[in-house]
Structure formats: structure tokens, C-alpha cells
Design a protein that fits this description.
Blueprint: E1 5-7, E2 13-15, H1 27-30, H2 51-79, E3 82-83, E4 93-94, H3 98-104, H4 107-143, H5 145-149
Antiparallel strand pairs: 1-2, 3-4
Length: about 150
């Protein structure tokens, strides 16, 4: 007859533990349900009609962004391939890549490019440091210096 209790290190009786039993998953357990296969994508439907308010909130931004950012950028790109003037109406004669070749050979272009790079090098680190300093100072003021030191 087997004993159901064993003696521990301090002479305390404790019950014997049964060995854990594991079962291997069957093929039916690993298959997705019939309505969910690998080729279908199930989407959380949520409440119907919630996409319309989101689009209405986004519409003014999208209109202004296209009108003042995307539109002028595309028009400027198109103008760069023509011999045009901002004073005269119309695009003028097609110039192709000759405007770009003229810009690359110009000293003014390279001087402007260098000044732009130098401006970026001088302004980006202070902006990053200041934008990090202000939130940290607000957290320190709100929660106290000692809490931040932990």
C-alpha cells in the first residue's frame, strides 16, 4: 500500500503531489473555426456610422493641406521644367532639365545650400533640448524633485 503523505525536511507531513498530465492538442484544436480562415480578415465593425464624423473632422485639414502645401509644391515642380516667370502669366517655353543644370553650376546655389545646412545644424539641437527641458521641468514641478530622483 502506497503512502499518501511524505515527510518534509522539518518532519512536517505534506501530501504527495500528482504528476501533471499534459495532453497534446488534436488537429481539430489547432484549426481555426470554419468562419475564420487564413484568407479572411475579420474587422471590428464597431458602431455603424462612426467613420463619417471622423471624415468630417478631417475634411477641413485635408482641404487646407492640399490647397496650401501639396498644390503649390506640385505647381512649383511643374514650373521648374519650364522657362517661366512669376511676373508673366503662363508657364512659358519648356526648358526640361536645363534649369537644374544651371542651378547646379551656380555659385549662389551652393552658397544657399551651405547656409541652409549650417542653419539646420545650429537650430536643431537647441530646439530639441528646449522641447525636452520644458516637459521635464513641468513634471518636476508637478511631482516634486525627490520623486524624480528615485
Amino acid at each position: 500500500m502506497a503512502s499518501t503523505e511524505t515527510t518534509g525536511t522539518a518532519g512536517i507531513a505534506r501530501p504527495e503531489r500528482a504528476a501533471p498530465t499534459t495532453t497534446q492538442p488534436t488537429l481539430d484544436d489547432t484549426r481555426p473555426p470554419a468562419h475564420r480562415t487564413a484568407m479572411t480578415v475579420e474587422r471590428d465593425a464597431g458602431l455603424p456610422g462612426h467613420g463619417r464624423p471622423a471624415m468630417l473632422f478631417l475634411a477641413p485639414f485635408v482641404v487646407l493641406y492640399v490647397l496650401f502645401i501639396i498644390g503649390p509644391a506640385i505647381y512649383g515642380l511643374v514650373m521648374s521644367f519650364f522657362d517661366t516667370s512669376l511676373v508673366k502669366s503662363g508657364l512659358g517655353d519648356f526648358a526640361g532639365l536645363s534649369n537644374y543644370a544651371e542651378a547646379i553650376s551656380s555659385r549662389d546655389f551652393w552658397s544657399s545650400l551651405w547656409h541652409t545646412i549650417w542653419f539646420t545644424i545650429l537650430t536643431t539641437p537647441p530646439l530639441v533640448i528646449v522641447s525636452f527641458f520644458f516637459p521635464v521641468s513641468f513634471v518636476m514641478r508637478a511631482s516634486g524633485w525627490r520623486r524624480l530622483q528615485r
